[in-house]
Write a structure and sequence with these properties.
homodimer; 153 residues; mainly alpha; Arc Repressor Mutant, subunit A; three-stranded antiparallel sheet; 8% strand; globular; DNA-binding
Chain lengths: 153, 153
DNA sequence: TGCAATTGTATTGTACACAATCTATTTCGG
DNA sequence: CCGAAATAGATTGTGTACAATACAATTGCA
């Protein structure tokens, strides 16, 4: 009754795929952050990087990239910009000159106070109950846990 | 016991936010599509546009943008590239010269057969049961439904 | 009818995102 | 100790993504 006849192409319909609402949702939530982040002159990705620093104060580029799933091509210019703004410093590791240590400055620490109110403002827009948010969080974590290739190395 | 002391900044922790796993999930799923899409020489966004055309055969840029939540700055170069590949044609609407009609070509229609196997391959990677996938889909739809501003116009 | 407002697309500029490549540094096997 | 392999970042090139702007076509209203 619902499906008139299975063409074999049903899976190619946008509304049958998880990837599409996931893609749109992620995009639209970034858009929700934008006006709030504009007020403290951060882009969304810069905000993600700052969140890691607010937790850790210091981290090298490799570890930061692993946490955010971003590579050096994305992080290098982004961190240089945050350095220019005075929120962090970039210093080569004395013990291993290949590594670059990123450290939060006092100005960067101060910024945290201005950002503290943002997450709840955006969360309110989503219109999910705490239970629903928890379910969604768990499902996304499950996907992320399954995603890495079975990779037999 | 779990939270030692509430600093008021807990909400700024990456693992407390929905936006971050959502952002990573969307990104990683696109990455999962990439090897399959490489085989038919489409990028992920081009694939989304083609999916709409496989359903509708013809659509103008405005409607396509509304479906995919993409603006003309993204769609114009993307559609020109798909036109170059021969998968679609771009023709001004005779009745309203402002509108651009995008139509699937035979070659574009053929491509559908090569793409038909992709969604299930990626879906398999997610490792969700049909019930979980349904729940996730519903939650994402709920967020998308709530996102548009209350906008009192 | 005539012009202002609207609409649809294109263009420009900024900011990711990542593959591929390059360079400097470190590590490791012989 | 030396050269090959591995590692960490930086650079380059392509492809989104979108705000802001420009502009042509259309619509609506005085």
């Amino acid at each position: 009754m619902m499906k008139e006849q299975t063409t074999g192409f049903d899976s190619l319909r946008l509304d049958c795929q998880l990837c599409f609402p996931l893609y749109v949702c992620a995009k639209e939530i970034v858009r929700k952050y934008k006006p709030h982040l504009d007020e403290i002159d951060l882009t969304y990705t810069q905000y993600l990087a700052m969140m890691v620093l607010w937790e850790r104060r210091e981290i090298n580029v490799r570890d930061l990239g692993r946490i955010l799933t971003l590579d050096s091509g994305t992080l290098t210019p982004l961190l240089k910009k945050l350095e220019q703004k005075g929120y962090l410093t970039r210093v080569r590791d004395k013990r291993d000159e290949r590594c670059l240590d990123v450290s939060l400055t006092e100005k960067g620490e101060k910024l945290k106070e201005s950002a503290a109110c943002i997450p709840e403002k955006v969360a309110a827009c989503l219109g999910l109950s705490p239970e629903e948010a928890g379910t969604l969080h768990a499902l996304l974590r499950k996907i992320l846990a399954n995603l890495p290739e079975p990779e037999e190395e």
